[in-house]
Specification:
With 406 residues, the protein is α/β, with parallel strands linked by helices. It folds into two domains: 2-153, ATPase, nucleotide binding domain (Nucleotidyltransferase, domain 5, 2-Layer Sandwich), CATH 3.30.420; 202-384, 2-Layer Sandwich (Nucleotidyltransferase, domain 5). It contains 15 helices and 14 strands. A hairpin with a 3-residue loop joins strand 9 and strand 10 (218-224). The radius of gyration is 21 Å and the shape is globular.
Length: 406
């Protein structure tokens, strides 16, 4: 079964083609073809990198339109040096990462006109991401008209949160209207929890695990018996940890104050919270942790403050997850920052010595992939896991299509 995966970010697009013959294992399979589009380097333009058959090509596309980029990306599957199939009809199913499924979508589902309409109405809950997913769905449906398309929801993994974790302490009518904590990064949290248990040779059902997905967008999940019982993102992906350009949790009265005293509009506040806050807002250097660390080495005080604040709030929310779990067996780091930044892992773990959690400093400094970086005597295992959202999406698609046939 040939499965095309589209993983849309707010300013990026990852695409992979897998060929899965039998029930897919957790260990990732190698894609036949991969393509990555990035809109961050030049405003209004996209850099498109495509690799297959030992060939790798890079295009600079003078367009900010995601659909146009995806159309060119798809053409490279059956033409040019990265051709890997002879005809579009060879693709059996397309899987799309969708950040927000709202209260209705609690598992992956085949995309119908009704589903597309529902995703359109959910845009206010994921304004940076759901529009990108819809663009990908529209682009692939135009070209792969008869190919089944599947939506794999980041919120699905958190759909069974205990009510005391899901509900906000406002009027109960909020909850009745669907205003609740939905979480995000669920596909990554689910994969990393399973992979952590596999690496340790343990049964996931017996582990209390906190997974730290740390990147431009960041969230934690408290996982017990293989299920998410608490998470840091909420109604939208804005709540919780400090992120690249997002504030994370702030006192809501700040927004009321800015409206009343300084005349800010809702649109202005939304822009500030999503695009001008977090690492970028505090440091005035960058939203990229690598550039923050370089500025720290140059004794930039604002960058140092941004790094320390990021680590402080990470520890703060890990503590909240610990309380929900009633203890901790495994702490896993993933995502661009989680996998590649020893300073952040060390800073986060330094707050939990009272749990007899101890990092192996040499292993941590090396940032190994899919390894335990705690000491042999540590009471808590600390892992670095490379998240494989694309493979997890492909696995979901395989099971959905396979089960519908059989």
């Amino acid at each position: 079964m040939k499965i095309l995966v589209l993983n849309a970010g707010s300013s990026s697009q990852k695409s992979r083609l897998y060929d899965i013959e039998t029930t897919p294992a957790l260990t990732p399979g190698k894609p036949l073809w991969e393509a990555d589009a990035d809109w961050t380097k030049n405003k209004g333009q996209a850099e498109l990198k495509i690799s297959a058959n030992g060939h790798s090509v890079t295009h600079q596309l003078p367009t900010g339109a995601r659909e146009a980029v995806i159309e060119q990306m798809l053409q490279s599957l059956w033409s040019g040096p990265t051709q890997i199939i002879n005809d579009p009809s060879e693709i059996d199913v397309v899987g799309h990462r969708v950040v927000h499924g709202g209260p209705k979508y609690r598992s992956s589902t085949l995309i119908t006109p009704e589903v597309k309409n529902d995703l359109q109405h959910l845009i206010p809950l994921a304004p940076l991401h759901n529009p990108a997913s819809l663009d990908g769905i529209d682009a692939t449906m135009k070209i792969l008209r008869k190919t089944p398309q599947v939506a794999v929801f980041d919120t699905a993994f958190h759909s069974d949160l205990p009510i005391e974790s899901a509900i906000y302490p406002g009027p109960y009518s909020w909850y009745e209207e669907g205003i609740r904590r939905y979480g995000a990064h669920g596909t990554s949290h689910r994969y990393c929890a399973q992979r952590s248990a596999q690496l340790l040779g343990k049964n996931l059902q017996e582990l209390r695990l906190v997974n730290c997905h740390l990147g431009n967008g960041s969230s934690l999940a408290a996982i017990r018996e293989g299920r998410s019982i608490d998470t840091t993102m909420g109604l939208t992906p804005l709540e919780g940890l400090m992120m690249g350009t997002r504030s994370g949790t702030v006192d809501p009265s700040i927004l009321i104050y800015l409206q009343r005293q300084h005349g800010y509009s809702a649109d202005q506040l939304e822009h500030i919270l999503n695009y001008e806050s977090g690492l970028k807002g505090i440091s005035d250097v960058s939203s990229d942790m690598r550039q923050i660390l370089q500025a720290v080495r140059e004794n930039n005080e604002r960058a140092t403050l941004a790094l320390n604040l990021f680590i402080y709030r990470l520890r703060y929310f890990i503590g909240a997850m610990l309380a929900s779990l009633g203890g901790l067996d495994v702490l896993t780091f993933t995502g661009g920052i989680g996998e590649h930044t020893p300073e952040v892992r060390a800073g986060a773990c330094a707050g939990f010595g009272f749990l007899n959690l101890e990092l192996d400093q040499a292993k941590n400094a090396a940032s190994p992939v899919d390894e335990d970086i705690s000491t042999a005597t540590s009471a808590v295992r600390v892992l670095v896991v490379h998240t494989e959202e694309d493979w997890e999406i492909a696995r979901d698609c395989w099971h959905l299509v396979h089960d519908s046939i059989h």
